[in-house]
TrEMBL record:
Organism of derivation: Candidatus Methanoperedens nitratireducens
Lineage per the UniProt record: Archaea, Methanobacteriati, Methanobacteriota, Stenosarchaea group, Methanomicrobia
Protein name from the UniProt record: Exosome complex component Rrp41
The organism's place on the tree of life at top rank: Archaea
Cellular component aspect of the GO annotation: cytoplasmic exosome (RNase complex)
Known role: Catalytic component of the exosome, which is a complex involved in RNA degradation. Has 3'->5' exoribonuclease activity. Can also synthesize heteromeric RNA-tails. Catalytic component of the exosome, which is a complex involved in RNA degradation. Has 3'->5' exoribonuclease activity. Can also synthesize heteropolymeric RNA-tails.
Ranges where the Exoribonuclease phosphorolytic domain occurs: 21-150, 154-216
Localization in the cell: Cytoplasm
One GO BP: nuclear-transcribed mRNA catabolic process
Amino acid sequence: MNRPEKLIEGDIRLDGRRPDELRPIKIKVGALNRADGSCYLELGGNKVMAAVYGPREVHPRHMAKSTSAVVRYRYSMASFSVEERKRPGPDRRSIEVSKVSREALEPVIFEEYFPRSAIDIFVEVLQADAGTRTAGINAASIALADAGIPMKSLVSSCAVGKVDDTLVLDLNKDEDNYGQADMPVAMTPDGNITLLQMDGHLTRDEFREALEMAKGACTTIYELQRAALVEKYSSQMEGGDVIE
């Protein structure tokens, strides 16, 4: 694939968005009946499914912690999720994304409530279009809440990047491939950062501005996450279901 001549022209990006504009987001809570909690999320062209199982018994047992739960996060991409067929199974990237995503969510989970237990989070990318780790964290956070896992708050995630010397929010595929920087961020509603990575180069001023852009985007995403959860459980209550 050849690099487009310009990734941003004036104030408009190739996909028609302004620099500070998110791609469309679609959220469905409880998409899987057999999981304890689940979420299907679309972020632009990304299609991600998250499922949570637990708290449940730890296998193998030697991995259990006597004072808290073990949180396990498995991120994987379906072989058909990208244009060039991906080889099935874990690779270095999926292992790295699983690790940083777990670390982004662990600070908000009350792990001490469930000693000698496991909380398993599975994130499957069905279609990839840049920003899959941030989409996965957003979906996983909702799935944890849907499973009834006690949490201090939700976690919301978005990436900020730099293309053609301009800071942009929520990079698309071309911007991710050919941009000058990419900075995924995850944070709680009160602004505590649980994930911050950067690939590329930003000046100090650009970094500060990018962080403010990410904070605003995460606030918007949090409101969408919260609204999706409220919608699901409000409809259950109206339907006569008892929520304990």
